[in-house]
Amino acid sequence: MALAGAGIVFWLLAWWANTRLARLADDAPALRLVVPAIFGITILVVWEMVARGLAIPQVILPAPSVIAERFGASTDVLWADFQQTFLKGAMSGYAIGCSAAFAAAVLADRSDFLRRGLLPVGNFLSALPIIGTAPILVMWFGFDWQSKAAVVVAMVFFPMLVNTVSGLRQTSAMQEDLMRTYAASYWQGFFKLRLPAAMPFIFNGLKISTTLALIGAIVAEFFGSPIVGMGFRISISVGRLELDMVWAEILVAALAGSLSYGVVSLIERRVTFWHPSQRR
Fold it and tell me: Is the pTM of this model over 0.90?
């Protein structure tokens, strides 16, 4: 109990210090990394102290040190699960779904019939619960990574489509009239005006899809997969009450999702450096 109380006191002190540092972050760029690092470390320290101070059973909430120990002892298993779920299922479905959505958005942009007909249908399909569509797609495409990629395609297609269509319609009538006065063709106006203007919206869809892709691949593995994969490992570990392994898989998923989101954000900063959202 004393250890848990010390954890609460540590939390309050760290919170007070971090609020002071956050106010100085605009003047000191290095603090932009220090503030979130301190916040994350504070959560881990308080978690450790509370879990051990209150003697919480590991089957309910294992301490971070226990999770780290299991993580270090299971790197080979975690790496195999990461390859199966993230590299094969999530990333392949992400690439296929986003590419197909971009192509469909370009077609819908050229046709009012497709835009008015495709978006409501896509809205309907995106509203279908993954818990219902995932087992159907697993039965259609088999138990390997192909079915997980199909689930990911179904999840990322509509967000990417909506954002791209919205972005392609952001140019004003005056800008389009200017391109016509230069005798620009549709594709010249598309590549020189409309596509650059749509880039912030496209990257918004890409960033949303990075998290959806990993979630879809993991959930799909609950309904059937080979004896490898993050969703498969979480499912059997919960049945065995090995909550430290479950948290280790969650850690891998969090790191993979954060890394993919960060990569897309970095590319966005390079491509849309001219946009007000990228100015400092």
Answer: no
